[in-house]
Design a protein that fits this description.
The structure holds 2 protein chains of 2 kinds.
Chain A lengths: L2 H32 L6 H12 L5 E2 L2 E4 L3 E4 L3 E7 L9 E8 L6 E7 L7 E6 L5 E9 L4 E12 L5
Parallel strand pairs in A: 1-9, 3-9
Antiparallel strand pairs in A: 2-4, 4-7, 5-6, 5-8, 8-9
Chain B lengths: L6 E4 L3 E2 L3 E9 L21 E8 L2 E8 L8 E8 L3 E9 L4 E10 L1
Chain lengths: 160, 109
């Protein structure tokens, strides 16, 4: 074995060790994060489960109207529109909004009827930090759709 | 916060039959989240409007459940399909049991 080969083998071993170390650091980070008071993806999933049961949401049909960057987390405009004909036998029943970085993930549930004409609504919400907004739409035929979008927050809005 | 609550509603006055109109609402309310600390260092108890409902001639059009994540002075805009002249009735339910309401008439030509 030439010196050159030995060196490269060592580097590879070192590289592997480094990678293993990095993974542990990342794993540690995750554990720490779930210990804080903020919601995380799992809490959002639990909240969704509680509202719609064990149904599997499909991506699509939902469009957000959200800023990419919110300078003031105290009042972030949020709009959501779901594609639907909104007739008596085919309409959007509810849309649930969640923020996965807030102390509690729930933001609002919007309930539509065929008289709504259009499954679209807008409000303003508080965001504690940069995070994902998740929308889950329940249709009258029982199908469920999901979408998410990130909002960068400059100043948090939960008065912590 | 049951004082100084003032609902504001904007609905166009006339519409054609079957038109989908946009409705904008705003109500002044602190929406105290229950997570903020007051000057004495104690948590200020939660006091929010937790539900908002809209009916047209008595039939439900739209409603929404609100969590503390909704901003102070909650704004909500949504749509309604009008097939006849009538009146929208808006209701906001407070944590303390108060109900604030407002109405708006629309004429279908």
């Amino acid at each position: 074995m030439s010196t050159k080969q030995a060196l490269s083998a060592l580097t590879r071993r070192e590289a592997l060790l480094l990678a293993a170390g990095a993974t542990m650091v990342v794993a540690g980070g995750v554990v720490l994060k779930s210990g804080t008071a903020h919601a995380d993806t799992k809490m959002v999933d639990d909240a969704i489960m509680k509202l719609i049961g064990a149904k599997k949401p499909v991506e699509g049909k939902i469009t957000f109207d959200l800023p990419q960057i919110a300078e003031n987390g105290n009042t972030v405009p949020v709009g959501v529109t779901v594609e639907s004909p909104m007739t008596a036998d085919n309409y959007v029943k509810s849309v649930h909004l969640f923020a996965d970085g807030n102390p509690a993930p729930e933001v609002a549930s919007l309930h539509f009827t065929p008289l709504s004409g259009k499954a679209s609504a807008a409000t303003r919400m508080r965001l504690a930090k940069t995070q994902n907004i998740v929308a889950v739409a329940e249709m009258s035929d029982g199908s469920v759709f999901r979408a998410q979008q990130e909002v960068k927050v400059t100043i948090g809005g939960c008065g912590g | 916060m049951a004082n100084n609550v003032k609902p504001r509603v904007r609905v166009q006055k006339t519409a054609t039959k079957g038109e989908v109109v946009e409705i904008k609402t705003l109500i002044s309310h602190n929406m105290e989240s229950g997570r903020r600390k007051g000057k004495d260092g104690k948590l200020v108890p939660r006091s929010i409007i937790n539900k908002f409902t809209v009916t047209f001639n008595g039939k439900p059009v739209f409603s929404s459940d609100w969590a503390p994540s909704i901003s102070a002075n909650p704004y909500m805009s949504f749509f309604a399909k009008v097939n006849e002249s009538g009146e929208f009735a808006f209701k906001w339910m407070d944590d303390d049991g108060s109900v604030y309401d407002s109405t708006a008439k629309i004429t279908v030509a």
